[in-house]
Amino acid sequence: MRSLSNMLAAGTALTALAMTSPATVTAQETETTSGMTNPAEAAPLIPREDLFGNPTRSSGNLSPDGKWLSWLAPKDGVMNVWMAPVDDPDAARAMTDATERPIRSYFWAPDSRSLLYIQDKGGDENFLLYGIDIASGAETTLTPFEDTRVQIFGTSENIRDKILVGLNNRDPRFHDVHLLDLNTGELTLVQQNDAFAGFLADDNLALRMALRPNAAGGMDFFPIVDGKIADEPSESTGLEDSLTTQPAGFTTDGKTMYWIDSRGRNTAALVAQNVETGEKTVIAQNDKADIGGAMTDPKTGEIEAYSFTYLTTEWTAIDPDIASALDWLDERLDGEFGVQSRTEDDSKWIVWNDPLTAPSKTFVFDREAQTLNEFYTSRPELEGAPLQAMHPVEIASRDGLTLPSYLTLPPGSDADEDGVPEAEVPMILLVHGGPWARDDYGYNSYHQWLANRGYAVLSVNFRGSTGFGKEFISAGDLEWGRKMHDDLIDAVDWAIDRGVTAPEKVAIMGGSYGGYATLAGLTFTPEKFACGVDIVGPSNLETLLDTIPPYWAPLIEQFHQRMGDPDTPEGLALLKERSPLHSADRITKPLLIGQGANDPRVKQAESDQIVTAMQGHGIPVTYVLFPDEGHGFARPDNNIAFNAISENFLATCLGGRAEPIGETVAASSAQIVEGEEFVQGLAEALAN
After folding, report:
1. Could you tell me where the Polar residues compositional bias lies (predicted)?
2. Which member of 62, 145, 270, 532 has the lowest number of beta carbons within 10 Å of its beta carbon?
3. Does 445 qualify as catalytic in the annotation?
4. What is the pLDDT of residues 621-630, one digit of tens each?
């Protein structure tokens, strides 16, 4: 189902892709230091490759005309785009030939004549757009520019051979709008952009609105009439609504514009605006959560169903036929499900299904025939694996906020299945990135991996997380390393008081902001954690803001108001105070750092400088650098190698189970810059 969630979140997806047989894996012997027994010992050890390796298939789609199925699948070990006739799925052929980095995002051209995908180089996030003609198989670079990041500004139901794209090849800060002919590759400039963060187009591919950040930290919305941008905005937001209010598109006839809107309320509602009169009508709102997703009619663009996600996701259908279809699916599918692709005549859907404790499946749903045929199982090797239930929980912060959170326990630890183990187990506090993002309910490969190794895994939506209203986000303003961190500490104390874990057996781990939280945990509260794993986390907030990607420049005021303004004495002092780098001498517990050399968001210097500081104080640290990665590790060999090091690092620290490192590091580009001796088995793996 189409997501209408906020696209400004800067969190990383810690993904990985590859595969092996569980029969060949043995657990490495480890001992605990607290006398805890490991309840997971009786459960089979799930191989890393089964959890993080290439899925058999993923990202299934139907062509708009309903004639073709497409998906991502490995070709020579690298994820590529495949397709087959909808009536002959076995006649599959690979349409792309990526040999190094996996293709992770693709879509159909509206006219069904080509497949489109985006790809960067080495994780630099300069994504270019590529097209493959499905008749000839010929591939074209549709945006053939260097140091350029493409954005999609508009697609159309009526104009099927063209789309609107944004290109920042003229000025890296701003994306000029071009009309792209998908079949000839011709680019025509529509709007030069010297000030705006984005644009909204209608179904005629005409620009209708320009979005520009304002001095208040919010956004101004400027109408565009006959190609001319108005001198004054028709609507505006301030800082508090900046992450929860945005235009969400037009109906095909252009008469209705949808908004996700929190103005005048706490949580973001779904609102329809009559374009001619300006009148607005609230379609849906929820006291606990922002609007999270929507289904729109493929032909008319009208909203047919919407969802909210507080602890779990709840869908409500407006259209009776859609309600009937969703009810029919709900009767036949266990766990969570959603619609990820629809034909233009809406006769067929691609439906994903997350059974929660079994591998996800994807189906082709024929609405007219009322048949549900399995398309693929993403990870069939996980069939029968000891996957664990995720428990949604609410945790109270010390100042009265409710923190929606998720807890997964090791196999064999919770006979009553009530979310409380029979005896304390070691715990990993797994912190999400962003911080303007959120953790969700459902299958989570990191939860399953760490639980299988014998750890409780707790993910916390701390203040500043999105999805729970603007007040919850604003409660995190200027609170990096303070109240946002207090929420994490309160969650750890909750787990200790509940009997989930012991005070001396908690590790902290995360990527991006979660990496920062790891560094903050080991510097600001060094007594609280036994060890930490930092993945692409910033150590110095001052240098982080000074080196943001140029295309984030229009949003810098929001960063300054939510983190601290380095252009003021007070803001600079706050940023220095909240930067773990300046407290590196307080680190007393083991630390593992993973970094991509090409990361455009959190530069390599963020990891280099805290490692140098720790070395200057004689503090041990293990530092792993990937020269061909960016903000997170996309290449399968690299991600699996870092996870191999991580689980052996955690076993060294907490005494959980670990699959031996083996040849994973040698098969990757990993450079062990520092500290191989602090991870069990790492020195031996490098020597061999």
Report:
1. 23-37
2. 145
3. no
4. 999 999 999 9
